[in-house]
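2024-03-11 09:14:02 INFO worker-7 job=invfold-0412 stage=load source=structure_tokens
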């Protein structure tokens, strides 16, 4: 069967983690109580997932080092990749694909004031044709701005596509009351920190 659902579903094995690896630290290992120990690499986990397409954020890729460590990861997984600097040089978003990447481009999400970007890759899917995949990391402090970012991405494309990445849609139901209270407190001071960081980056 070659429906989009079948084509793009992740092929997981019983030992594979249930959540997306892009949320995890560089090495980890799940324990029965939901905690983890740092004993397995991202490469191990991605090999277990055996996904056809991956969208990664906060990726390090140094041009003077032949785009390592991203290029090493892609080579080990036997995947093609594209990379776009985002909030700082040598860090950004990446799309890896087991299938050929025909075209790709990078665009600001909303306007030049938005230091975040989205990378779009047009992938040639066997027996199905071309598919556009967007990878980004949206704002995590301002819900109104985050929704503007989502709408800007949607409006920029009218063909079949997948939007993946750090969508940063925080909800109190995902956290304990204590943890949510801490996040709210942090969010109250973070905008000032982010403004200072953006001014430093663009200076």
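2024-03-11 09:14:09 INFO worker-7 stage=emit residues=203
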């Amino acid at each position: 069967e070659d429906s989009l659902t079948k084509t793009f579903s992740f092929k997981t094995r019983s030992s594979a983690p249930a959540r997306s690896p892009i949320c995890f630290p560089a090495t980890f290992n799940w324990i029965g109580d939901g905690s983890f120990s740092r004993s397995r690499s991202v490469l191990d986990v991605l090999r277990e997932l055996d996904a056809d397409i991956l969208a990664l954020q906060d990726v390090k890729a140094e041009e003077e080092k032949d785009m390592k460590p991203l290029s090493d990861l892609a080579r080990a997984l036997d995947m093609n990749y594209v990379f776009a600097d985002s909030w700082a040089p040598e860090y950004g978003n990446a799309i890896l694909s087991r299938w050929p990447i025909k075209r790709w481009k990078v665009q600001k999400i909303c306007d030049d004031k938005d230091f975040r970007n989205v990378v779009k890759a047009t992938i040639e899917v066997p027996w199905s044709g071309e598919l556009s995949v967007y990878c980004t990391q949206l704002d995590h402090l301002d819900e109104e701005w985050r929704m503007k970012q989502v709408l800007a991405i949607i409006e920029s494309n009218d063909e079949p596509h997948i939007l993946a990445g750090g969508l940063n849609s925080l909800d109190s139901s995902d956290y304990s009351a204590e943890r949510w209270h801490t996040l709210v407190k942090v969010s109250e001071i973070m905008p000032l920190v982010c403004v200072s960081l953006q001014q430093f980056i663009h200076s």
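2024-03-11 09:14:09 INFO worker-7 stage=report msg="The longest strand covers residues 53-62."
2024-03-11 09:14:10 INFO worker-7 job finished
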